[in-house]
Structure formats: structure tokens, C-alpha cells
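Weekly sync, protein design subgroup
Attendees: M.S., D.O., the rotation student, P.L. (late)

Item 1: inverse folding check
M.S. brought a backbone from last month's batch and wanted to see whether the design step gives back something sensible before we order anything. D.O. pointed out we never logged the input encoding, so this time it goes straight into the notes. C-alpha cells as presented (137 positions):
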């Protein structure tokens, strides 16, 4: 029970922090969003957002497995997927946006296939990413 509470608390804190990024401060400022994503990435994953974006998916997954305990591994994968999605949505460079969306999609699908928790939110994210990728071909 304590383990489950820890994981829920970590995810709740992460999503609350994301909400503050997009509903507080100057949410339209690209620099503000990038700095906030970088801070969240470092706080929850131990690396800045550039590492998550510029590394290939296998490297990120391997890194997450080394810093995570079994109980929070999938939560960290979910955090990485959401950070990548938000980073992609903040990009003007279409190629970087597509690359980051594909990486985010891979992580969301990995979660979908391996998580014991059903998530409508995750399924909606997958659908949105697929739609965006199909529109930007």
C-alpha cells in the first residue's frame, strides 16, 4: 500500500507541475515552456530534456531502467512520454517535432502494451499523435 501511494504521489506531483507550466506564468512563451520542461525532466528523470529528446529511444529506456525501481519504472516511462509530447507540441521545426512525436508515441505504445493499468488518457494521446503525424507527412 505504501508503495502504491508513493507512485500515485509522484505521478500526481508531476501532472500538477505540468498543469502549472501551462496554466501559470507566461504559458505562451516558448522559453518558459522549454525551461519548465527541462526542470521537470531533471526533477523526475534525473536528466535534462535535451538528453531525452536527442537520445534514441533504446538509450532513454535503458537509462530509465537503471534509475528506476521496478515499482516506478513504468511511471517514469509515462513521464518521459508526456515530456516528449509537450516538447514536440512546442516545436516550430517540423522535423524535430515529428521525431519527438514518434518517440513519444513509441513510449505510449510501450506503456499500453506492458502496463497493467488501463488508461483512456493514454489511448487518446496515442490517437492524437497518430493523427498529427498523419497530417504532417
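Designed sequence read out in the meeting:
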Amino acid at each position: 500500500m505504501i508503495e502504491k501511494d508513493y507512485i500515485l504521489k509522484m505521478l500526481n506531483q508531476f501532472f500538477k507541475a505540468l498543469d502549472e507550466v501551462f496554466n501559470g506564468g507566461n504559458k505562451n512563451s516558448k522559453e518558459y515552456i522549454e525551461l519548465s520542461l527541462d526542470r521537470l525532466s531533471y526533477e523526475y528523470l534525473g536528466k535534462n530534456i535535451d538528453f531525452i529528446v536527442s537520445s534514441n529511444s533504446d538509450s532513454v529506456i535503458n537509462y530509465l531502467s537503471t534509475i528506476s525501481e521496478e515499482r516506478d519504472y513504468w511511471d517514469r516511462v509515462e513521464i518521459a512520454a508526456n515530456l516528449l509530447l509537450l516538447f514536440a507540441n512546442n516545436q516550430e521545426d517540423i522535423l524535430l517535432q515529428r521525431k519527438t512525436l514518434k518517440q513519444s508515441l513509441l513510449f505510449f505504445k510501450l506503456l499500453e502494451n506492458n502496463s497493467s493499468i488501463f488508461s483512456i488518457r493514454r489511448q487518446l494521446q496515442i490517437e492524437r499523435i497518430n493523427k498529427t503525424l498523419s497530417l504532417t507527412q
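Discussion: The domain at 2-135 is CATH 1.25.40 (Serine Threonine Protein Phosphatase 5, Tetratricopeptide repeat). DSSP finds seven helices and no strands in the chain.
Action: P.L. to compare against the previous round before Friday.
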